[in-house]
Structure formats: structure tokens, C-alpha cells
């Protein structure tokens, strides 16, 4: 269900924007056992390198992210989704909030949800856990994205990050 809601909203909110990804300096590996249930997320810290088009190319860029299982089933990479935790509005860190803990004003804006969402505590921007798409609030776009590049028997590997993160962070 989480995946279906997210996919639908993603098409509306971000579907026409093609993201460009660049490899991290070193892939991040998150224990698979900690992502056994849809809606559970796990924080991680990643390091990339600013690209040639950046003002200061070749510089290390540290980015905090969160990876979540977004669908039941096997452990294929597309069952997981990773986002940058930095809100695109004014750079507060988002967190995972369950539907029962959402402020009524937020629910009024985004509608009733049955799955956890990412919520920015500063000005209540909300984002789909399924794909990071913006659901409501002042954020100008969805959360910046990582790409899950593989899953082994014991870990989920996050190996790439949206280029804009390495340009603007
Ligand atoms: S910083 Fe996140 S909504 Fe303003």
C-alpha cells in the first residue's frame, strides 16, 4: 500500500523531472535485518565528491540519509528507497512520523494517510516515505534522492546520490 500511494503521488509531483545520479565515494551498507518491515527507516551517513561542474570540484560532501523498506515481498533493490534527510526548504532534518502522530493541520493539508511519512519539524513540510515526493508544506520539491544499488543476504547497499546534492550541499 505504501508503495502504491507513493508511486501515484510521485507521478504527479516529480514524474517529469529526470534525476541524475553520481556514485558515492564509498557505498553505504545498511543491515537488511533492520529493514524487515515496510515503513521502518534507518539513518545513515554517506560521503560523495563534488562534481566537475561544482564551484569547488573534487571536494568531499557529507550527506545524511535515511533508507526504508517501502514494499513487502522479496529483497529486490526496488523494495527499498533512500532519501537525503535535509529538507529542501530551509535545510532542517526530516524525521519519520506515523499517521497517528501527525498534527491535524498537516492531515488537513495532505489528507488522511495510512503509512508513515517524512515530516520536517521546522515548517511541517511532508514527504512520501515511498519515494520522497513532496506531499505538503513550503518545501519547493521532494527530498533529494539516493539510489539503492544492491541488496545482499545481509545488507542494503546505497551507492549513488542525486547530483544536485553534491552541487548544492
Ligand atoms: S525547513 Fe523544512 S519545511 Fe521549512
Account of the 3D structure:
This protein has 169 residues and is an alpha+beta fold. The protein has one domain (2-168): Rieske [2Fe-2S] iron-sulphur domain (Rieske Iron-sulfur Protein, 3-layer Sandwich). The chain is built from 3 helices and 10 strands; from the N terminus they run αβββββαβββββα. The chain has helices spanning 2-13, 104-110, 163-168; strands spanning 21-31, 41-49, 60-69, 80-84, 95-97, 117-119, 126-128, 134-136, 146-151, 155-162. A 4-stranded antiparallel β-sheet has the order 5-6-7-8. A 3-stranded antiparallel β-sheet has the order 1-10-9. It has a 3-stranded antiparallel β-sheet with strand order 2-3-4, with no helix packed on it. It is globular and about 45 Å long. It starts with a helix and ends with a helix. Residues 1-15 have low confidence and may be disordered. The site of FE2/S2 (inorganic) cluster has 11 residues, from loops.
Write out key terms for the chains shown:
single chain; 169 residues; alpha+beta; Rieske Iron-sulfur Protein; 3-stranded antiparallel β-sheet; 3 helices; 10 strands; globular
Give the percentage of residues in beta strands: 35-45%
Q: Helix and strand succession?
A: HEEEEEHEEEEEH
Average the pLDDT over all residues and give the rounded result.
90
Given the structure, what is the number of helices? 3
CATH architecture: 3-layer Sandwich
Shape designation: globular
* Structural class by helix and strand composition: alpha+beta
What strand line-up does the widest sheet have?
Answer: 5-6-7-8
What helical percentage do the residues reach? 10-25%
Q: Give the total of beta strands.
A: 10
Under the CATH scheme, which class?
Mainly Beta
